[in-house]
Every structure is written in structure tokens, then in C-alpha cells.
Design brief:
single chain, alpha/beta, five-stranded parallel β-sheet, two-stranded parallel sheet, binds zinc ion
Length: 350
């Protein structure tokens, strides 16, 4: 996803590359990790605690765990082959379900949070969409959405191009109607139009006062984040509002990243920051912003193992989704993924 591999406008630092440790890693990304819930703010669990427990047991037998920041920081001590566990969106599940299992298996992780839920007490659109989808059903939600769109902005729907995605196959498991609607919500209809409609539908569906409750139920609290940082977990930056960065101009991209950084800095006192790009998308402006903000590295959702070249470039570090790493039926580690970092494996992508 995003612009893969090398970037042309950043010359590798030749002097350093001589000493670059030959690190490889598989980065496995999780979002929500929970059992079924009866809450009205229930989210689709991307993984269950039972499966996560077994995944940790399997991975810990073969590889050490490492935080993303340590892997990227070439002056730090990091194993030659490791697994990086990441959690995006700062779900409360990280303390409720994941933390006891991580501690049981002696695993560390990097947790990527957005600032907006804390600074403004608002849900990220991505979760607002999921709550509405679940409550209203796809037909009810899309009907209400397009009706409201027409009422506010007319019958002509404004859609932005998907050029930034480089032909990425969006929502390949959804049928065409769902796919088109999700694309409109997340990638195509301008934020200035989609956001007020989602706010109105959310208030109409759940009650005007319910957003604060949904925020508390959905995301880690400030105390949780501090506790995780104290216990040695990396708190990473998932920007301010979880926008698709390449849809924004340079200044807005930089602001999105910078305000996410400021939030984490304030919270943890960290001085170096790893960023996970929302939805994995990034472009040359993103890289420029990352450089100007002097950040440590940027994680994408490009699905392959991390090789030494990725750590030299730093702004497009690949990452798997957990679904790519374990068999959906048996929950066994997929050799195609993890053999890429096994010892004595030749470098395949550098
Ligand atoms: Zn995210």
C-alpha cells in the first residue's frame, strides 16, 4: 500500500550504510482484540484473545519481540531477526485483553494512538463509521448518508480521485455496494462534507451526548497510555485525526503528524517518535514532513518483511496485518511470512 520501496529524493547516507546492522523483522499489526461484546459501541474484533494468546506462544518460540522504535533506531540494540507487534488506533482492548497476554509471553509492543479523541473528546471517523454500519446496517446507513448528503450539498456527489493509492485493491473482501460506500466515506468524498454528515448521523442514531461515552469505551484512557509507557511499551504516533495523509496538502499533512507527536511527547516525555501512517498511505509530502519533524521512521501497510534497506530509508517501513500472518482456520504461523526473517535466509527484496 502507498508508494512502495525506495524513494528517489532521499539519498542513502553512504557512511552510515557501511555500519548498518543487518536487521530483519516481521511487523504484525493489530487493531481491536476482544471477545464479542453487547455494548452498543461494539466493534468488529479483528482478533480474539484466545487466538492472540496462541499467536504469541508460537512467535515467542521462534523470535524475540522488539519495539518498532528500537528496530528503526540503528544506534539501539535490536535483534537481527525479530517480530514487531503493533496496535493501531489506541484501542482500549490493548489494556483489557492484550496486556495480560503480552506480559504472560514476555512480549513488548508499539501502540499507535491518534490525538483527537483525547484533545477533542471525539471519535475518529473510522470508528464512527463502524458504529453506524453496525447499528444501521449497510443499507440503512448508506441510505441515510446519501439522503443527508443531497439535503446539504445537492444531488451531485463530489468525489476525489484515488491517484494516491497507486491501484491499491480496496476492500477486496466486500461486495460492490459496500465497497463503493466505504470508498466514498473513507477516501473519496471531501472531509469537509463527509465529517458533518457522520456527526449528524451519529448524534441522530446514538444521541447527541453519546460521543464521549463511545470515546471512553473505545480508546485507551490517558492513564492507560501512561501505564503502558511506564511498563516499557512504545507509544507511537498515528497522527491527530487519522486522515489519509496523501489526500492532504503538505502543510496539513505536517500539522496532522506534528500534533500527534506533540500529544505523545506531552504524555510520555518521549523525545523520539515512530509514526504509523493511517491506512498505511504516504507520499513524497509525507516523507518531507517526517524529515522536517526529525522523526524516527514511518510504518506503512505494505505487506512484506522489513529488510535492512527499509531501515536505511525509514519512511516506508512495511508491515503485515495479522490476517496475513496466521492461518484463519488453524491459526498457525504462515511460513511464507515468517521464513523471510529466519536466520540464514538470503535478503530477497533489498
Ligand atoms: Zn488506524
Amino acid at each position: 500500500m502507498g508508494k512502495p520501496g525506495r524513494t528517489s529524493n532521499e539519498s542513502p547516507v553512504e557512511v552510515e550504510s557501511v555500519h548498518t546492522p543487518l536487521r530483519r523483522a516481521v511487523s504484525v499489526n493489530y487493531h481491536f482484540l476482544r471477545t464479542a461484546s453487547r455494548s452498543r459501541f461494539a466493534l468488529r474484533a479483528h482478533e480474539t484473545p484466545e487466538r492472540f494468546d496462541s499467536q504469541l506462544a508460537q512467535m515467542s518460540k521462534r523470535f524475540p519481540f522488539c519495539r518498532a522504535g528500537e528496530l528503526i533506531d540503528l544506534t539501539s540494540r535490536a535483534p537481527e531477526s525479530s517480530v514487531i507487534l503493533t496496535f493501531d488506533d489506541g484501542a482500549r482492548d490493548v489494556v483489557t485483553w492484550a496486556l495480560p497476554l503480552l506480559e504472560k509471553h514476555g512480549a513488548t509492543a508499539s501502540i499507535f494512538v491518534c490525538a483527537q479523541p483525547y484533545l477533542e473528546g471525539r471519535l475518529l471517523e473510522i470508528q464512527k463509521i463502524e458504529f453506524l454500519m453496525k447499528k444501521l446496517g449497510i443499507g440503512g446507513f448508506s441510505g441515510a448518508f446519501y439522503t443527508e448528503y443531497e439535503r446539504r450539498f445537492g444531488s451531485e456527489i463530489e468525489r476525489e480521485p484515488l491517484d494516491f493509492a497507486g491501484g491499491y485493491d480496496f476492500y477486496r473482501y466486500d461486495d460492490e455496494e459496500v465497497r463503493r460506500f466505504k470508498l466514498d466515506l473513507n477516501y473519496r468524498i471531501p472531509y469537509a462534507k463527509v465529517v458533518p454528515i457522520l456527526d449528524a448521523l451519529f448524534a441522530a442514531t446514538f444521541g447527541a451526548e453519546s460521543e464521549a461515552e463511545a470515546v471512553r469505551e473505545t480508546y485507551l484512557g490517558i492513564d492507560d497510555l501512561k501505564r503502558l509507557a511506564d511498563r516499557g511499551f512504545e507509544i507511537g504516533v498515528h497522527t491527530n485525526r487519522h486522515r489519509v495523509l496523501p489526500r492532504l496538502d503538505f502543510a496539513t499533512q505536517k500539522h496532522e503528524i506534528e500534533s500527534g507527536v506533540a500529544f505523545v511527547r506531552e504524555l510520555t516525555g518521549q523525545t523520539a517518535f515512530t509514526v504509523a501512517y493511517p491506512y498505511g498511505f504516504h507520499d513524497a509530502n509525507t516523507h518531507r514532513a517526517m524529515r522536517e519533524l526529525d522523526l524516527r521512521g514511518g510504518l506503512t501497510m505494505e505487506r512484506r518483511a522489513i529488510c535492512p534497506q527499509d531501515l536505511r530509508d525509514r519512511w516506508s517501513i512495511p508491515r503485515f496485518d495479522v490476517n496475513d500472518c496466521f492461518d484463519r482456520e488453524s491459526n498457525q504461523m504462515l511460513a511464507a511470512v515468517f521464513s523471510q526473517i529466519a536466520a540464514n535466509e538470503p535478503e530477497t527484496t533489498g
